[in-house]
Write a structure and sequence with these properties.
Blueprint (H helix, E strand, L loop, with lengths): L11 E5 L4 H12 L3 E6 L2 H15 L3 E5 L7 H8 L6 E4 L14 H29 L3 E5 L12 H22 L4 E6 L7 H5 L12 H14 L5 E3 L2 H10 L4 H11 L2
Parallel strand pairs: 1-2, 1-4, 2-3, 4-5, 5-6, 6-7
């Protein structure tokens, strides 16, 4: 008798950046598995439309929280709004600023750091203690393949994702001792609104995937019950990320700069 592989079935999942792209795909995939949802993003109209679709299609309960993760103590304040048990947290919200650093706006950089770094730490700080206390739960922090090397024209974004990767790896070790999983999900270039904002040239160093590809990578990791500190979506992206760590920066950076321009 062949038994079906066990599937990860969280009772309630919280997804940030859920209004589009990878976040919305996570919401659809988890709803199809029967997970109730808390969807977090700034665009309330999109959240409401998505929540209505998922409740109607899958019969789950979907709560929406219009929230700006760039505000100070965003995770702690979000936890006050969402006091119920959360089995899976997906820190997906993020954005990039592209172009030479000296041409960038300091306020844009500050907001990027607030959303891509501070909010990730704050959300983990807000939701991880309850998971540790009950010895169950999972947190996925969405990083990027840019985390594996510095990237000219995406200097702050790549550094922010390197932080998320390192932070997630440390939490993976600390949390595993308490039965809780934390890992970084590293997509390469993905067909979302992200590249509508920063431009297609930023995708030149990788192979385009779809949000479905990226979420499928995460779900396979969850289904396998593997305790892994990080996973890269896509074989080509994996090879490129590994190779980047082997090439000296004085060689790698000019090559990346040529690819991105």
């Amino acid at each position: 008798m062949i038994r079906a592989s066990p599937r990860y079935l969280p009772g309630r999942s919280l997804v940030t950046g859920a209004s589009s792209g990878i976040g919305a795909e996570f919401a659809r995939t988890l709803a199809a598995r029967g997970s109730d949802l808390v969807l977090v993003a700034r665009r309330e109209d999109r959240l409401t439309t998505l929540a209505d679709e998922l409740e109607r299609t899958h019969g789950i309960h979907c709560r929406t929280v219009a929230w700006d993760l760039s505000v100070e103590a965003s995770g702690r304040r979000l936890r006050e709004v969402v006091p119920e048990r959360i089995d899976l947290v997906i820190n997906n919200a993020g954005f990039a600023v592209q172009g030479p650093f000296v041409d960038g706006d300091a306020d844009d950089f500050a907001r990027l750091i607030a959303v891509d770094i501070r909010a990730v730490v704050d959300v983990c700080s807000a939701f991880l203690p309850d998971m540790i206390a009950r010895t169950s739960g999972t947190i996925i922090n969405v990083a990027s393949t840019t985390a594996f090397q510095p990237v000219p024209s995406l200097a702050v974004y790549a550094a922010a994702k390197a932080f998320v990767l390192s932070f997630s790896q440390a939490l993976w070790f600390e949390s595993a001792q308490h039965g809780v999983r934390v890992f970084a999900l590293n997509p390469g270039p993905t067909r979302t609104e992200f590249f509508d904002v920063i431009g297609d040239t930023a995708a030149a160093a990788g192979s385009y995937q779809t949000p479905t590809d990226v979420v499928s990578t995460a779900m396979r990791t969850l289904d396998a019950r593997r305790s892994r500190p990080q996973v890269i979506s896509g074989r080509r992206n994996t090879i490129q990320a590994i190779a980047a760590g082997l090439v000296p920066a004085r060689v790698l950076l000019p090559a990346l700069d040529r690819m991105l321009h």
